[in-house]
Design goal:
This protein is mainly alpha-helical. The chain is built from nine helices and three strands. The chain has a three-stranded antiparallel β-sheet with strand order 1-3-2. The protein is globular.
Length: 217
Amino acid sequence: MKPQRSADPAESLDQTVYDALFNGVMHGRLKPGTRLQEAALCEQFGVSRTVVRQALRRLSEVQIVDIVANKGAAVATPSPRETRDVFAARRAIEGAIVREVARRIEHGDIEKLKQRLRAEHDALHDQDHPRWVALAGGFHLALAELSGNQVLQRMLTELMTRCSLIVALYEAPGEASCEHDEHARLVELLSLRDSNGAADEMDKHLLALEARLRLPA
């Protein structure tokens, strides 16, 4: 979830470009290192260079785009050090998220999470990897939404986008970004309102996800 912006037309166009590039990274359509040519973006979105540059500048502020003088913009390529920092931040934030979710979760919320688990299972069974990746990431964002904390939700959305770049760079062939059984255990602990257990399970889940990456020394 992003902060409210004013109704100024230039800012609205800027937000359109920002959202399109942000979602392109989030869903794996824009890979690390992809050049983002200003002229091509202007033509694609029908906007001025000023609008495109503003959107790229905002994306660089959240480390999704790298802008290099005299070279232009490209989708960011996270280093191994940045990867470890992102996962450390996710463990801290998502631990806080599941503790809050365990405190406030209701029966209807649990049923919606179980529906998500069934969709994940179906995607795995159908060997539909793109759909599985989208559902697995959506599970974490759904938990953030259930926490009711919009600041944590916004922070996690940005970190999840960085993780999309990280997985594109470092995920070993044949490895899943998340394990379905780990999500199922999280839902079970949340249904019991076990905040400590859910936080511990999330920590193990994210450590396992990081361990499945092939990071260079």
